[in-house]
């Protein structure tokens, strides 16, 4: 099997793994804010209608949807925008460099979500199962 054929076979699977892990990691932010799991002092007592509270709802719902791969493209697009806004509101005012302002994770999430919005959910997803049934 040629290397290009190997890439063609494995790319949709690796995209699925990237989506699942990103969804699970993103979900932690929502569960920390609303369920207290894991317990994070800076996420305690989040008000639902605050920016952090709204972000937590998006993280909770989107984390689940991304993990199972349902509505991946629109959900990932929304998450990409949300994490970009989070970067510019919470991190950019602290300095130019993401390493120095603590915004590396927000930037990385933004571009991973943007990639998933374009690439889709991958082979192992609810989106793929629904598409195959049609």
Question: What keyword list fits this structure?
Answer:
mainly alpha
Report on the structure:
With 134 residues, the chain is mainly α. It has one domain (3-133). The protein has helices at 3-34, 51-68, 72-91, 98-101, 104-119, 126-133. It is globular and about 50 Å long.
N-end to C-end Cα span: 31 Å
* Count of discrete alpha- or pi-helical segments spanning 4 or more residues: 6
Please give the number of β-strands: 0
Mean pLDDT: 95
The share of residues in extended strands comes to under 5%
Structural class: mainly alpha
Number of domains: 1
**H and E order:** HHHHHH
Largest sheet geometry: none
Shape annotation: globular
Computed CA radius of gyration, to the nearest angstrom: 16 Å
Which stretches are low in confidence, meaning pLDDT under 50 for 5 or more residues running? none
Helix share, percent: over 70%
SSE layout and pairing:
Layout: H1 3-34, H2 51-68, H3 72-91, H4 98-101, H5 104-119, H6 126-133
Short description:
The protein is an all-alpha fold and 134 residues long. The protein is 73% helix and 0% strand.
